[in-house]
Design a protein that fits this description.
Strand content: 15-25%
Radius of gyration: 28 Å
Largest sheet: 8 strands, mixed
Oligomer: single chain
Strand order of the largest sheet: 5-6-7-4-8-9-3-10
Structural class: alpha/beta
Number of strands: 19
C-alpha cells in the first residue's frame, strides 16, 4: 500500500497540474518521509486507511453532487488526510499536533474540515473527546457544523453512533461531543479539547482563539489544532504567522516533526491571466472550481487594481498587501526607470511633505520636483529609532533595520524618535534645494518641531499646515494616482517608498473623494502621505501656477 501512496505522490509531481514551489514542497515532504521515515516516527498504513475510509462513508448534501459519496481527491488523501492520521511516534502518540492548510476558495475547505471534525468525534476512539469548530463568528462556525450534521444524516453507519442536536453532535458510545464556537476567547477557557478546527484563520484579528484552543489540548494524548483558510492581507495576524511558519517547514528552513503544513497557491511571478496559473493554485480545478468562474474573476482583475487584489487572494491564494490595493504596483515600478544623480537637483525648486510619526516609528519627508514634461520627481527621506517598534509585523521591523543598515532609512540612536536630528537634516536639505513650502500635519509633535525649525533658521513663511482631511487630500490624491498610472512620476526605485506604496489602502466618501487610510492599510504609508502633501504644494505653487513662476510648462 505504501507503494501506491508513493506512486500517487510521484504522479502529483509529474502530472498535468503544475504545482507551486510551496505545494511541491508539501508533496515531496510526504513522499520522502514515506520512503525514509525520520528517526522516531512510524508510518501506520492501517490508521491512514481508516481515516480515508471514514471520509468514504460521507455524502455530499447540496449542489450538483447531492447524495453522492464524498471521494477524496489525491491531494486531499495523500497530502492531508493520510499523513495527518498515518504518522505516529515510537511511543504510540500521533505525530502531528498542530496543522495549517491554506487553499483558495471553492476547493472544498468546509467539506474537508467537517469530515475532520467527524473523524475526531468517532474515528479516533477517544473517550470524552471534545471537538470544536471555531470561526470569527458563530454563523461561520455553524457552516462547517451544518455540513457535519447533514453528512451524518445521510450515513446510516454514523447515525447509529451519533445524536444530532441544534448546537452539538454527540457520540454516545464514546461520550464525545462536537460543537461550533465563536471567537469570543473568554468563553473558551477551561475546554479540554481533543480536536480544534479553525476556519478562515485569516479573518481572526487577534491570536486569542488560537492560543486558548491550543493550550486547551494539554491533557490529551493525540490532540490536533488545525487551521484551514484562504490567504489574507494583514501580516500582523496569527494567520500570517502560521503561514510563514508553514512555508518555512515546507521549504526545509524549519525542522518541526509535530507541525503539519499544506499550501496550494500560485507563485509570485505567475501570470494571473494564464490558465496554468489557475490550475496551479487550485487543486480542485475542473471539479469544484469552475474554469468560467475563474476566467470571469481574472477579467475583472485586469480592469481594476482592487479586483486584482481580491482575485489574487481568493482564487490564487496569494497574500496581498492590503484588502483594497490602491496603486497598481506594476505601474509604480515602471516609474522607477531612469538614472539618478542627486546633484542634478541641487538648487532646484521643490515642495516638501513632512509626516512625523509617533516617537517609536518611521518618519518621512518627501521632496517633490516639477519637471518640464509635466511629470514630477520624488526624493524621499526616512528616519526611525534603532529600536523601531510600531510597524505592524516582526518581519517589517527587521526590514526597517535592514534598510537602515543600507542607508535607505536613517536610524537614530535609542528607542524613540530623535526629532532634533530630523530638524537639522531638514535644514541641510533647505541649503541644497530651493524649498518653496514645507507642508506639515499640525497634529502631534509637529508644533514643537516647527518651532525647532524656526530656531534653526527655517523661515516660517515657508511652512504650511496640511490638515489630514479628505477635503485637503481629495485633489492631490487623485492626481497622484493619475500620475502613477500615466507614468509621470520618477522615484528611482526607492525600496522604502515602494513598500509604503504597496501598503496603501484608500478611504472614499459618497462624493467619490479619496484619501490614504492609515487604519485600513496593511502597514506604514507615511512616505506616500508625505508625497501627496508635497504634490499638493507643487500643484498650488505660490499664486496657483508653479509652472509659470519657474518658467516651466503649464499644467
Amino acid at each position: 500500500m505504501i507503494a501506491k501512496r508513493t506512486d500517487a505522490l510521484e504522479a502529483m509531481l509529474d502530472g498535468n497540474r503544475p504545482l507551486s514551489a510551496v505545494e511541491a514542497g508539501a508533496v515531496r515532504r510526504q513522499l520522502n518521509e514515506l520512503r525514509d521515515p525520520p528517526d522516531g516516527l512510524v508510518w501506520n498504513e492501517e490508521k491512514a486507511n481508516n481515516a480515508v475510509r471514514l471520509f468514504g462513508k460521507l455524502k455530499h448534501w447540496k449542489g450538483e453532487w447531492h447524495g453522492t459519496a464524498l471521494k477524496l481527491r489525491p491531494w486531499q488523501e495523500e497530502c492531508i488526510v493520510a499523513p495527518l492520521f498515518g504518522w505516529y511516534r515510537d511511543d504510540g502518540r500521533r505525530r502531528f499536533t498542530t496543522g495549517y492548510v491554506e487553499v483558495p476558495r471553492k476547493n472544498g475547505k468546509t467539506t474537508l474540515i467537517a469530515g475532520l471534525a467527524i473523524q475526531g468525534l468517532v474515528g479516533d476512539g477517544e473517550h470524552g473527546a471534545e471537538v470544536y469548530a471555531a470561526a470569527t463568528k458563530r454563523d461561520q462556525a455553524m457552516l462547517m457544523f451544518t455540513d457535519a450534521q447533514n453528512m451524518i444524516r445521510q450515513s446510516k453507519a454514523l447515525q447509529a453512533y451519533c445524536r444530532i442536536y441544534k448546537h452539538s453532535i454527540v457520540c454516545e458510545r464514546l461520550n464525545s461531543v462536537f460543537k461550533p464556537v465563536s471567537s469570543e476567547a473568554h468563553t473558551l477557557h477551561g475546554l479540554n479539547s481533543h480536536r480544534n478546527l479553525i476556519d478562515e484563520l485569516h479573518a481572526h484579528k487577534t491570536r486569542d482563539v488560537w492560543d486558548v484552543l491550543k493550550t486547551g489540548t494539554g491533557s490529551r494524548r493525540n490532540p490536533l489544532t488545525l487551521a484551514i483558510t484562504t490567504a489574507g492581507y494583514d501580516r500582523s495576524t496569527i494567520c500570517w504567522e502560521q503561514h510563514e511558519y508553514a512555508r518555512n517547514v515546507l521549504e526545509g528552513h524549519y525542522s518541526d516533526d509535530s507541525y503539519f503544513a499544506y499550501i496550494a497557491c500560485a507563485d509570485p511571478e505567475d501570470d494571473i491571466q494564464d490558465e496554468n496559473t489557475w490550475k496551479k493554485a487550485n487543486p480542485n480545478y475542473g471539479v469544484s472550481v469552475k474554469k468560467d468562474q475563474i476566467r470571469e474573476g481574472a477579467e475583472r482583475a485586469a480592469r481594476s487594481a482592487s479586483e486584482e487584489n481580491t482575485f489574487r487572494m481568493l482564487h490564487l491564494n496569494q497574500w496581498v498587501q492590503q484588502a483594497i490595493r490602491w496603486l497598481p504596483m506594476h505601474l509604480w515600478d515602471k516609474c522607477g526607470d531612469g538614472d539618478f544623480d542627486i546633484a542634478d537637483y541641487y538648487g532646484r525648486p521643490c515642495w516638501v511633505g513632512l509626516d512625523l510619526a509617533s516617537t517609536r516609528d518611521v518618519n518621512s519627508a518627501v521632496l517633490c520636483f516639477p519637471e518640464e514634461d509635466d511629470s514630477y520627481t520624488l526624493l524621499p527621506y526616512f528616519w526611525a529609532p534603532e529600536d523601531v517598534q510600531d510597524t505592524r509585523g516582526q518581519q517589517d521591523r527587521r526590514q526597517v533595520v535592514n534598510w537602515g543598515k543600507r542607508g535607505e532609512i536613517k536610524l537614530t540612536s535609542g528607542n524613540v524618535t530623535d526629532y532634533d536630528c530630523i530638524a537639522h537634516d531638514i535644514i541641510d536639505l533647505s541649503e541644497k534645494f530651493d524649498i518653496q513650502k514645507l507642508m506639515f500635519d499640525p497634529w502631534g509633535p509637529a508644533q514643537s518641531f516647527v518651532q525647532r525649525l524656526q530656531e534653526l533658521g527655517f523661515p516660517l513663511d515657508s511652512m504650511e499646515e496640511f490638515r489630514q482631511t479628505i477635503g485637503n487630500f481629495a485633489s492631490p490624491t487623485k492626481e497622484f494616482e493619475r500620475l502613477v498610472i500615466a507614468g509621470q512620476f520618477r522615484h528611482f526605485d526607492n525600496p522604502v517608498l515602494r513598500w509604503m506604496a504597496g501598503n496603501v489602502a484608500v478611504k472614499q466618501d459618497p462624493a467619490g473623494n479619496i484619501r490614504p487610510d492609515k487604519e485600513k492599510s496593511s502597514d506604514k504609508i507615511d512616505g506616500i502621505v508625505a508625497a501627496i502633501m508635497a504634490l499638493s504644494g507643487a500643484m498650488e505653487g505660490e499664486g496657483g501656477s508653479v509652472y509659470e513662476k519657474h518658467g516651466l510648462r503649464s499644467l
